[in-house]
Amino acid sequence: MKTSIATVSISGDFAEKLAAIADAGFDGIEIFEQDFISFDFSPSDVSKMVRDHGLEIMLFQPFRDFEGLPEGPLRHRSFSRAERKFELMNQLGTDLMLVCSSVHPQSLGGIDRCAQDFAELGDIAKAFGVRVGYEALAWGRQIHDHRDAWEVVRRADHGSIGLILDSFHTLSRGIDPESIRRIPGDKIFFVQLADAPMIEMDLLFWSRHFRNMPGEGDLDLPAFMKAVIATDYKGPISLEIFNDQFRRGNAPMVAKDGHRSLISLMDSVRRDLGENAGGASAGLPRLPAKARISDVAFIEFATRPEGKDGFEALFRQLGFRLTGHHKTKAVSRWQQGGLNLLVDTEPTGYAAEAVFEHGTTVTDIAFVVDDAAAAHARALALGADNFVQAVAKGEVEIPTIKGVGHSVIRLLDAGMDIWRTDFAEADGGADDPPALLSHIDHIAQTMGYDEMLSWALFYTTIFDTLKSPLFDVVDPDGLIKSQVITMEDRRLHLTLNGSDAPYTRASRFVSSVRGPAVQHIAIATDDIFALGERLRDQKFEILAQTQNYYDDVLARFDLDLDFLNKIKGLNILYDEDESGRYLQLFSRTIDNGLFFEFVQRESGYAGFGAPNAPFRLAAQRRASEKTPIPAAG
Ligand code: MG
Description:
alpha/beta
């Protein structure tokens, strides 16, 4: 299978686009005529540039309003226009042109009339040594269904005329992709893929602004691709993504996301179809299966040596015990039951660089996966960046990839006992409070809004996850978008938060720590009241809630007054859904915008206390106005 992407999908001038596309690993491009026209190079120079990047031009597009015109000058002109483009294609070194179905007000339609137009065009194309593919636009005036476009192509009955399929045009109109199975694969000249979020809106507007990468939206691309593969189509699979965010976004990131999404989609389709699916799935690299995360082995914070004592005092207040020191690095292990938090104060290396650039920050998230080597291989095959760090003799080499911002993701096998190999036991003192915290419930990473789709794709293509919709959280200074990624076992979640508004807590965090990072960690407890009392006794700074909040809780839910007073006394926030209750407690901002959340989920409550988020954000805003963010230590 050859991979391709339309130049219109990403930002930059033509040269920047080519560099990003080539680096991302694509085999070729669809050259969008506008990109070419606005570029001040001759066709043969452009052709050379494309080849110099190791790419080929797989398609020239779009050619509009060709078919179904009445006899006369209009029809004549559309043929001579096509001839000029065929000449240009010869100079560019590409042999396939996309004709999209006409939206011309004078287009008469008629399957046979259109077929006749294409049969004539086929003769001209043949003389130029090029081919023409016909695509049904979802908003085409007469032809807006690939089944009708195929009928035109079938009746044109010309070797140089074929069909072009575009997942958006088929799926956005709710056309059953199964109908593709009836088309001979050799008459499909090209296949374009685009996903899109399910939004009710005008088809043209939806297509021009909201298309996104396979897996980022809600269209059933696997069903579309399975039908394409059934035809034995062997040509390129190409992304044609019109998206406002991508057009202004970071070209290398968008191109890389595109390649990742395509490889991941084809991998999952191949898995569903089995090894002998053939067609476009033949020759695909065999990727290991998506990695299943069973636990968080540890989370590592890097901080300045002078901040260490204050930072660690917080862990002690939370009931963690110092149980280990890294044998060769300035890293301490804080443990509570199966939870491990590490504090890294190494003076050099990547953690020190992270602290220098961002202040106290989470540098490592270590996941326990079913097969660390396989998970690592899959991540690299999907374009994740490898991370290698020198290890001392006897220490475990943990497969690692780069994560959000300055952080890394460690991939551990269940049997990998790094505590024995890499750590020496520490004397944490006799005080061993009962463990009230049980496991990591969610890790919240805050980033630029533009990066959210990219990181969501990163996690959902590498790991076995469940997809959740994007939702809005109201901050006093604007909207924050939140995307939840739930691991397959529904125990661990990652939340990605981002905001376009410059003064929301999310945006302030990203600008104050100079980049995306973990902003908060939510730890699960089975007894939030005992925890709340311990934190109060320990003088751990809890985020205070308002009387108005509790009045509202009483109005919204059927709670008895004793219970309400209990949660109010400990500043616990409350929510419930049809299956259970959710109790939340937030720390004040601890250091550099970081904070903790403690949650008690009861009877399968599935959310994250979204109705409480505006009150939490307002409370954080009040707290930060009253007192400057305290520095640790
Ligand atoms: Mg298209």
